[in-house]
Design goal:
With 304 residues, this protein is an alpha+beta fold. The protein has a 7-stranded mixed beta sheet with strand order 5-6-2-1-3-4-7, covered by helices on one side. A two-stranded antiparallel sheet has the order 8-9. Keywords: FAD, Flavoprotein, Oxidoreductase.
Length: 304
């Protein structure tokens, strides 16, 4: 198994990063262009691993995971996760939202203008019809539209055996992106905020916080790419590695999000600053394809 990103993957990442910087600046995260989804489709980012016969790129999960981490770093629409899974596993080519089960209702995430939404029902990945006439608000992550539906809408199971792992892998990639964003925001702020006539990044206490943030990202990125390669190779332990990638990425996103606000100090607590955005995205991603303890028990580690 080759774990070195290829030149083509590096070029794809660079092109994606450049495009995201122009099309999805963090400063405009809560007021994205109305045609952003059409731009994402035109870039091919909604079907990286979808079969070429269905209009996708037909690339491997490894490339898709790396690109989705970059998209997550720019707080790209959550519906990219569900749409990528649906396009890979079915012949549905349009936007698909996400569903989260809740007490007495189903929460639809980023499903506005989507005919279906992807979710987990009784342990199986399924698509659900999105009812018309819903009232849309926002989730804890204010970049994500949310609506509540009760009772649960009709749905149909996805037969693709790897759909659940694919969903968990891409959610992990988005979480890694949120961790990367928090790390970058903290490091950038530490370079310009001055105290005692010098940047606060000069002080060891801030250096250690930023270094820990970088380490969390590096560890989560390594596990994410290994998990994606294992899923591509169809190894027997792929499910374990995908679950481990999600657990590490979720933890990195939450811890880095909190550390970013700490580095920003008082301004980090305000709505006018953007330090709260990656932390709120991290909290939301924790509910998408969450990892249970049993997911992290390989046959060799299960108690007798």
């Amino acid at each position: 198994m080759d774990l070195t990103p290829s030149a083509e993957q590096e070029a794809f990442l660079t092109a994606t990063s450049d495009w995201c910087r122009d099309a999805m600046p963090i400063e405009a995260a809560r007021a994205r262009p109305a045609n952003l989804w059409q731009q994402l489709e035109a870039m091919g980012l909604t079907g990286i691993s979808a079969p070429e016969a269905q209009g996708g790129m037909g690339l491997e999960f490894g490339t898709e995971a790396l690109v989705f981490a970059e998209l997550g770093r720019h707080l790209a629409p959550i519906a990219l996760i569900s749409t990528a899974v649906v396009r890979h596993s079915t012949d549905h080519a349009a936007k698909a939202g996400l569903t989260l089960a809740g007490a007495g209702a189903v929460r639809l995430l980023d499903a506005r203008d989507a005919g279906i939404a992807l979710g987990v029902r009784d342990g199986r990945v399924a698509t659900f019809d999105v009812p018309a006439g819903l009232t849309w608000g926002v989730a804890i992550d204010q970049t994500v539209p949310l609506a509540r539906v009760a009772p649960s809408p009709d749905g149909s199971d996805i037969s693709a055996p790897r759909a659940a792992l694919h969903l968990q892998l891409l959610a992990a990639a988005f979480a890694l992106g949120a961790a990367d964003l928090a790390r970058d925001m903290a490091a950038d702020y530490a370079k310009v905020r001055e105290q005692f006539d010098r940047p606060i990044g000069w002080f060891q206490a801030i250096k250690h916080i930023c270094a820990d943030m970088a380490v969390r990202c590096a560890v989560a990125r390594s596990q994410l790419y290994y998990a994606a390669c294992a899923l591509d190779a169809g190894t027997g332990d792929a499910a374990f590695h995908v679950a481990a990638a999600k657990r590490l990425a979720d933890r990195a996103a939450l811890d880095n999000g909190r550390a970013n606000i700490q580095v920003h100090g008082g301004i980090g607590m305000t709505d006018e600053a953007y330090a709260h955005l990656p932390l709120k995205r991290a909290h939301l991603l924790g509910f998408i394809a969450p990892v249970s303890s049993s997911d992290l028990l390989t046959p060799e580690l299960e108690p007798a």
